[in-house]
Specification:
heterodimer; A: alpha/beta; Rossmann fold; 5-stranded antiparallel β-sheet; 15 strands; B: ABC transporter involved in vitamin B12 uptake, BtuC; two-stranded antiparallel ribbon; globular
Chain lengths: 421, 348
């Protein structure tokens, strides 16, 4: 009996829902973030960075006290929409900051249309379609999308490295296509030629077939894979000889790959990659942000420097706070004034100034890094160049960009871009 | 049941034999929109009924057929995908936009065929091997949908899949959707109860307890088991269609390995001995999934450890009662009846 009693009481205790409502003198943020699965660590960094931004603002925005609720997702769009609905309907939040990954972003774009009186500010999700295809009026994205992250790299390898003929190996899903498109558009317009494209399934471990059929007469191989896929590829690639130069996609040379064990990653030395940030960016705004981040949290509770995900959520929180300050916390009329402020204000971020276009998508800077030996047996990224004012259409006209079509296995058509550009 | 109840005479109407607690529950569920908020109706209860239906199909196979199948979530997702493909969605190139009275039956039939085929493979195995083979097919289904772009639209899946507006009602509004899921769940529940008492269900339970003897008696054991898969697939398919309507979208993650395992957890936590178990399990699961971060934050702990709370909750239930919440209830009942004198019925 006692056992049963304990069991029922403990179950009941777990089930107690807590219902809270936003007060007039507070503004409530809902942080929609992946805290399960492959991105859990990055997601936790996102939460930390929102806390940091709120703390730097003194806990106030537009004269109102900031409260926040965390809604954890597992990166599936189903869960994301559920959690978003909970934030709006149950927790009564005013503004959602999030989500983190691409397909979640597309789901949130559609969900945002059903909550016209609230505002969604993207965390770090990077699918092009989120703000390009049928965008939602109340969905704002202050980070660059996956295609923009690839921009600048193509012209860099053509002009600085003199590599004009490449074969590509990239992950066979939406981020792989999108990130590749950003590279390819820039590369082809600079006069480059893509000889052959290989698409590998996410999570594959055997790249033998692809490596064997890579052409010999190319200047470099573009690698658009990440995480353990990247490590597996590099292992097999170095066993097969590793003769050619490499060009990395945005997730190719991140910490998981650079800190992996074994010698295979050495094949990466000298590989240029592009992405939304550079750890050793000498910019003062970036340096002071990194210092603030390091001071705000004890060393064992944070990354050595802010992660890509963390920066995204930090910028989203900055945008929300600055927008609220501009309108003195006025969220009446379905937040119309707040949205107007978000759409028009230039936002100073650690990554430079960001402006939004008519789709409420950011125009900003892309950083070109190169993998170098850090002198202690490890590898690190070194800041080489930056491409400023990269817009959603990658410098093309809206008509040309629309005509090119959405990223896919066969898009973009390199020859057409080379002749047109 | 081993309870010493007086045999009901054949004169009493079936309606009189429904215990009062069922009337109370029915009244409670029917009047819920009067006092619960939209979030609770749509999200908590709607999702509970949907997951309950999918877990009910597993309960039917496991409880009455002795076959623990992990394919039920994939069957549900297959139905969801078919509604998205044959009906309307945001992916105009793939979706055919057939009217609801065509796409829903097609979806259920295709999902039932899929479930039957898997069943035909799986019934030739026993115990752990059934779990293995269905899990393998579920994993294959997940990877296939993620990699196939021509039919399943790969990683992104389908969005903007919404229920049809029938009789002037937008069925995705909280209250209509609540009644829709409640109605479907009640029908599925009643169907399982009915089938379990019909000759087919009794034979199936016979097959579960002693397949050899049933075969000797002249029953086709394999055919009965496969037919059980077909029946369970129809229930899972209905749940899957409602699930895609609730989320307004479907993607490979809907039937990913975690989701497949969740259905098993729901059925086990609720109890797989009776059809009400999966619904109880689903309610517990949904409440834990929805509110555990808030509970942690309320105690001043970091919300990102919410999975720990979910795990502890399930562990506590399985530890205290290996046959789920239903088992707790049943043991409480037996203990109460034990406290009475078996001869006189007087309280000791």
């Amino acid at each position: 009996m006692k056992k049963a009693l304990i069991a029922s009481v403990s179950t009941a205790a777990l089930l107690l829902p807590s219902i809270t409502m936003a007060q007039d003198d507070t503004v409530k943020f809902g942080i929609l973030v992946a805290l399960e699965g492959a991105f859990a660590e990055g997601g936790a960094d996102g939460v930390r960075n929102v806390e940091l931004a709120i703390q730097q603002a003194g806990g106030m925005a537009g004269g109102k006290k900031i409260e926040f609720v965390v809604a954890p997702t597992d990166t599936t769009p189903d869960t994301t929409v559920r959690q978003a609905r909970k934030l709006i309907e149950q927790d009564g939040v005013d503004i959602i900051l999030g989500p983190l990954s691409g397909s979640e972003g597309i789901a949130m774009r559609d969900y945002a249309k059903t909550i016209p009186d609230n505002t969604v500010i993207n965390g770090i999700s990077g699918a092009l379609e989120t703000t390009w295809v049928d965008p939602a009026e109340n969905f704002f994205r202050f980070n660059l999308d996956g295609a923009q992250w690839g921009a600048g790299l193509g012209s860099y390898v053509v002009n600085e490295k003199g590599w004009t003929k490449v074969a590509t190996v990239a992950a066979d899903y939406s981020f792989g296509y999108t990130n590749f498109l950003g590279f390819a558009v820039d590369f082809c317009r600079s006069g480059g030629e893509i000889v052959e494209r290989f698409w590998v399934p996410l999570g594959s471990s055997d790249f033998g077939g692809v490596i064997a059929s890579l052409p010999d007469d190319v200047d470099a191989i573009y690698l658009g894979v990440g995480g353990t896929d990247a490590i597996n590829f590099l292992n097999q690639y170095s066993q097969a000889g590793a003769e050619t130069n490499l060009i990395g996609g945005t997730i190719m040379a991140d910490q998981t790959v650079l800190t992996s064990r074994g010698r295979a990653k050495d094949a990466l030395i000298g590989t240029p990659t592009s992405g939304p940030l550079a750890d050793d960016n000498p910019d003062e705004a970036w340096q002071s942000y990194v210092t603030a981040y390091q001071d705000a949290f004890p060393e064992d509770e944070r990354f050595p420097s802010p992660s890509l995900f963390g920066v995204g959520y930090y910028v989203a929180a900055l945008a929300a706070i600055q927008g609220l300050n501009e309108v003195d916390g006025d969220l009446s009329d379905g937040q119309v004034a707040f949205r107007e402020a978000l759409s028009t204000m230039p936002l100073d971020t650690p990554l430079g100034t960001v402006t939004l276009n008519e789709n409420r998508q950011a125009t900003g800077s892309v950083f070109i890094n190169e993998v170098v030996d850090d002198g202690e047996g490890g590898l690190k990224n070194e800041f080489k160049a930056r491409a400023d004012n990269v817009n959603q259409t990658l410098g093309m006209s809206v008509e040309d960009f629309t005509a090119m079509g959405l990223p896919s296995r066969d898009n973009p058509d390199c020859a057409a871009l080379r002749d047109g550009g | 049941m081993a309870l010493a109840e007086p045999k009901t005479t054949s004169q009493t109407l079936w309606i009189e034999r429904v215990p009062p607690i069922w009337w109370a529950l029915m009244l409670f569920l029917l009047t819920m929109p009067a006092w619960a908020n939209d979030f609770f109706l749509f999200q908590v209860m709607g999702w509970t009924f949907i997951l309950g239906m999918i877990a009910l199909s597993l309960m039917f196979l496991a409880g009455y057929g002795g076959m623990v199948s992990l394919i039920q979530m994939s069957v549900a997702a297959m139905a969801g995908y078919m509604v998205a493909i044959f009906g309307a969605s945001g992916m105009g190139d793939i979706s055919m936009g057939l009217p609801w009275w065509l796409n829903i039956p097609i979806a259920i039939i295709i999902a039932a065929i899929f479930g039957t085929l898997v069943g035909a493979l799986a019934v030739r195995t026993e115990g752990i091997y059934t779990i293995m083979i269905t899990l393998a097919i579920a994993a294959a289904f997940f990877y296939f949908t993620r990699q196939n772009y021509t039919i399943f639209n790969g990683y992104s899946g389908f969005n903007l899949v919404v229920p049809p507006s029938l009789f002037g009602v937008d069925w995705r509004q909280p209250m209509p959707f609540y009644y829709l899921t409640l109605g479907c769940a009640a029908i599925c529940y009643a169907a399982v109860i009915y089938v379990s008492r019909a000759p087919f269900g009794l034979t199936l339970q016979g097959v579960r307890d002693n397949p050899r003897r049933m075969a000797a008696l002249g029953f086709n054991v394999t055919a009965h088991r496969i037919a059980a898969y077909t029946f369970a697939s129809v229930i899972a398919a209905i749940g899957g269609i409602l699930l895609v309507w609730q989320n307004a979208q479907i993607a490979p993650g809907t039937a990913g390995i975690p989701a497949v395992i969740d259905i098993l957890v729901i059925a086990v936590v609720g109890g797989i001995t009776r059809p009400i178990g999966p619904f109880i399990g689903a309610l517990i699961y949904v409440l834990l999934r929805t509110f555990s971060p808030d509970v942690l934050l309320a105690f001043g702990l970091s919300g990102e450890r919410f999975k720990l709370l979910i795990g502890l909750g399930f562990l506590a239930i399985v530890f205290f009662s290996p046959d789920g919440v239903l088992g707790l209830w049943e043991r409480w009942r037996t203990r109460r009846s034990r406290e009475r004198d078996p001869l006189t019925g007087e309280q000791k």
